[in-house]
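Journal club side-thread
Mid-discussion, someone asked how the predicted structure for our own chain would compare to the paper's figures. Pasting it here so we can look after the session.
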Amino acid sequence: MKYGFFTSNEIRPIGWTERQLRLQAQGLAGQLDRVWADVRDSMWIGGDREGWERVPYWLDGFIPLAYLLDDDDMKQRAKRYVDCIIANQDADGWICPNGSTPREKYDTWAVQLISKVLVNYAECSNDARIPDVVYRIMKNYYELLKNGKISLFSWAKRRWFESFIALNWLYDRYGEEWIKDLAKILKEQGTDYEKHMDVWARPLNKWTHETHVVNLAMMLKSEAVSCELLGEEYTGLADKLYSELMKYNAMPTGMFTGDECLSGISAIQGVELCAVVELMFSLEHLYAYTGDKRWAQLLEKVSFNSLPAAVTDDMWAHQYVQMSNQIDCTPFLGNPVFRTNGRDAHVFGLEPHFGCCTANFGQGWPKLVLSTFMRANDGVVCAMPVPAELNSEWNGSKIKIRLDTEYPFKNTFKYTVEADKKTAMKLHIRVPSFAKGLTVNGKLVKKQDMLTFGGFNEGKTEILISFDVQARLATSPSRSLRYVEYGPLVFALPIKAEVNLKEYTKNDVERKFPYCDYHYKGVSEWNFAYSSKEFTVEEHSVGDIPFSSESPALVIKAKVTPIDWGYAYGYDTVCARLPESKRPMGEECEVELYPYGCSKLRMTELPYVQNKK
């Protein structure tokens, strides 16, 4: 691995990232154990509700959130769950609450997931119990698989590589050969996605594991996390797989469509929120293993656009599926426009369509913050230039690196490096490819992929960096439409919404304010085309809600003209995939574009019609 991860005891959020994490702690992901029976009363802690993926999914985000915020109450709540899970581990190492389901019929995706979560907990808490617990889980898994008592099927078969988060961690500590043997068994029984690439080219209204968008988002890191333990050469398979996915299923935000399976190139097909946070996790590991800036830059794009777009400002409700061109978020009265999702998948709520995203979306922001700084052989690399502070050691020197910035909303960065004695540690700072006019300490410097600083003296050293970014009209994946981008941010025309709250109980699950359903009905015009390639960028303050849908920190003024766009056939709440006509139907006007992540209803992909004045 080229770069290593620091722990939540070494990194802390500051500035807007701290405000974002506190919003999450006060919202749905931070309160699920109090409001949602599938977590509150789970079989994992002795209850009678879901005993498979939902508690592990929730803990995977809740644990780092608690420790990044250094919140004692949250830490104790996380510990309660971990204590119960450990207490219920069988003598032979089996840990999942499979109840009356025989082990051979129990989908061991839960084994893979809980092992990863417990490693996460160990890294955060330094709990001395966890290495032995995870050792016994995986040794039992190995013996069951080796002896043919169980085999991989369904989700475990498609997500075999998720086990390697725990296996790599175990091998670093124990170095025993059975760990390598288990790694080989998992790969042998797991899905080889490279053999299924042909089905990604033509979306079908058919649910399959091999086109399931979350499986594919997880899959991209498979070689990076498994090759060393398997003793295999890293071939860059992720480059090939991602390129193929985007060739046929791309979105402007760097995501590939999947509602819930791959959905083709269309601004009215969506992507599942689970896929967003899992792709982020994959990109974090891809960048850490390869050092390829492409993965870090893609991580920025997905994180700053797709993640905040799918969650309400107060983070109490989320969508299952988001669309680039989304003019309405009320349940479909008839067949949904989605290929394999239900009528309410795009509604903001507690668990629209299905509860996996409810449990899983909380991992996004905390793990992104944990990826701000990474370990390099000769020091530290700033991988994600968002506000954060690192407190660690390097070769016996205590070091503190603080990054003050409002990126991606503003492009100035103040690094403060403190060392308790002179150190040869180097600080590497990644520079995005779109940066122009790069300056260091007020002086214009030659554009480069990485800035490197070293030879820090005892005390404080300040490094001031800035660069310019230009708003531009980019070609959308369909090639027929355009979208505006500004650095890592995609911009969209926001649509005003009439929001109706819906409180109800369904299948014994209560939706009650603030974790009820929110129906967003579009009430403003959306049928426009861009009529100019000139844009005006306006910066505002980054408020308490960094990705506010009411007061965005950044807006772009653009010239548009009305056109005859029309609705998708059979719908009056979905725009047509492409406009009926690009002919202007009125006078040119100026509109404000919002960051994609700040716009809950939006038109992201519009045609361009040349202004003939």
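Post-session note: The mean pLDDT is 97.
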